[in-house]
Design goal:
- This protein is an alpha+beta fold.
- It has 4 domains: 74 residues, no CATH class; 97 residues, Helix Hairpins; 92 residues, no CATH class; 97 residues.
- 65% of the residues lie in helices and 14% in strands.
- The protein contains 10 helices and 11 strands.
- The strands form 4 sheets. A 4-stranded mixed beta sheet has the order 2-4-6-3.
- The longest helix has 98 residues.
- It starts with a helix and ends with a strand.
Length: 424
């Protein structure tokens, strides 16, 4: 709008000056005036030319006085064009650099994500193989101990046999006439010979067991592990009252049947039988006696006694935990130090690790945790809220704790939540 007013003003000024110049030229022509000795005709032409010069000069003066844009366009246009070209070139260069950096960051983020995934997979494989190795090593040590004991017994038997043989020779030399003694010594020799045969058989059996364990050690990686040692198959709360026979028939037997069904579904088998688990009789009888002697309610667990692979039976054991207060309200089960500069995926892994430690502590304390999973403990939205609170300040340090919600007894299900404390 302002530029339009300037143009209109210049047009009117130009017209006015042109009109004025025409009038002056006309009067000069009529009066036949002469300037600088020129002829009147030439004088009129000079006045007209000067009028045109004055119009142009006045137009430029008005434009430069009234508009900063006009002054810039007249006197600095080339400089501005050069600056604009340089700025455009810089913007193009910086834009290309930004695109290149974004591509490099994307590649690095993919590499970091792949490295984190590879690390987790390798960690899981390492833990599984370490558990397999520990189980097989334990079995191998037991067999080697039994083999060593059998060899010691065999050496003792051989020594006894040699001693008896010497005694027999001396007795035969000294007591040739005593046939009864001779027969007794022969019987002892026969018995020792039979004992030697039995010990040799035991050694062969133990050697066979050792070879079988070695074969299992070589082939265990090819079979999936379906249960790990101390894994809880099933559990229930048992109230006091009743004798050992009642608890064995009404409580323990159905619970063992339930555990057997679960093991069968996982792939455990006993060839030629309809059951998939085994338990030592003294373990069941001992648990029955403990339950009979209870004064308060208790948690009865069926746990795996050692690592089990698919296609083989699962060894079971029974555990009895009398009820008592294990964690008070708002008591911290486990804690960890966290910081906002950590990646969100790593924070989620650290919180999940904290939950695993909390569950393991509850399991060790005897709390009934059967059929509980992570969703029962902490919801996904609650975990995301904790992560968001940590990420609000990247430079802050926090102490994250898994705390009890209310007093937790052994017969209660585990109820926990996260608690954040900002460190100074």
């Amino acid at each position: 709008m302002f530029g339009t007013l300037i143009i209109i003003g210049v047009i009117f000024f130009g017209g006015f000056i042109a009109l004025l110049g025409d009038r002056v030229g006309t009067k000069v022509g009529k009066k036949r005036l002469s300037v600088f000795g020129l002829r009147p005709k030439h004088t009129s032409m000079v006045i007209t030319v000067l009028t045109g010069f004055f119009i142009a000069a006045l137009t430029l003066l008005i434009l430069t006085l009234m508009s900063e844009y006009a002054r810039t366009a007249i006197f600095e246009l080339q400089t501005i064009e050069e600056r604009l070209k340089n700025a455009t070139l810089k913007v193009t260069t910086l834009t290309q650099q930004v695109i290149t950096k974004e591509k490099e960051i994307t590649v690095k983020e993919r590499e970091v994500a792949k490295a984190e995934n590879d690390y987790r997979e390798l960690t899981n494989k390492y833990l599984t193989l370490e558990q397999h190795l520990n189980a097989v090593t334990t079995q191998s040590i037991q067999v080697q101990q039994e083999l060593s004991d059998a060899q010691i017994q065999y050496q003792k038997a051989v020594s006894n046999l040699s001693t008896k043989q010497i005694d027999l020779d001396l007795a035969q030399q000294r007591l040739d006439g005593l046939m009864n003694v001779n027969e007794d010594l022969k019987d002892q020799m026969n018995e020792l010979g039979l004992q030697k045969i039995r010990l040799n058989q035991q050694i062969q059996n133990l050697e066979t067991s050792r070879r079988i364990l070695e074969d299992k050690n070589r082939n265990i990686v090819d079979k999936p592990v379906i249960f790990y040692v101390d894994e809880i198959l099933t559990a229930r709360v048992v109230n006091p009252g009743g004798n050992a026979d009642y608890f064995f028939k009404e409580i323990i037997t159905p619970l063992l049947k339930q555990a057997d069904n679960k093991a069968y579904q996982r792939g455990a088998r006993i060839i030629g039988k309809n059951i998939s688990t085994r338990i030592m009789p003294e373990s069941a009888l001992g648990a029955s006696k403990k339950l009979a002697g209870l004064k308060v309610a208790a948690v009865l667990r069926v746990v795996v006694e050692k690592n089990s692979v698919s296609g083989e039976p699962v060894m079971l054991a029974l555990e009895v935990y009398p009820n008592q207060l294990m964690f008070k309200d708002k008591e911290a089960l486990v804690s960890a130090d966290l910081t906002g500069i950590t990646l969100e995926t790593e924070l989620r892994n650290q919180l999940l690790g904290l939950m695993i430690l909390g569950i393991n502590k509850a399991v060790g304390a005897g709390i009934i945790t059967d059929d509980q999973n992570f969703r029962d403990l902490i919801s996904l939205s609650e975990m995301n809220n904790v992560i968001s609170e940590i990420k609000e300040n990247n430079e802050a340090h926090y102490k994250a704790s898994l705390v009890a919600v209310g007093d937790i007894y052994r017969i209660n299900h585990l109820k926990v939540k996260f608690k954040l404390e900002r460190q100074k």
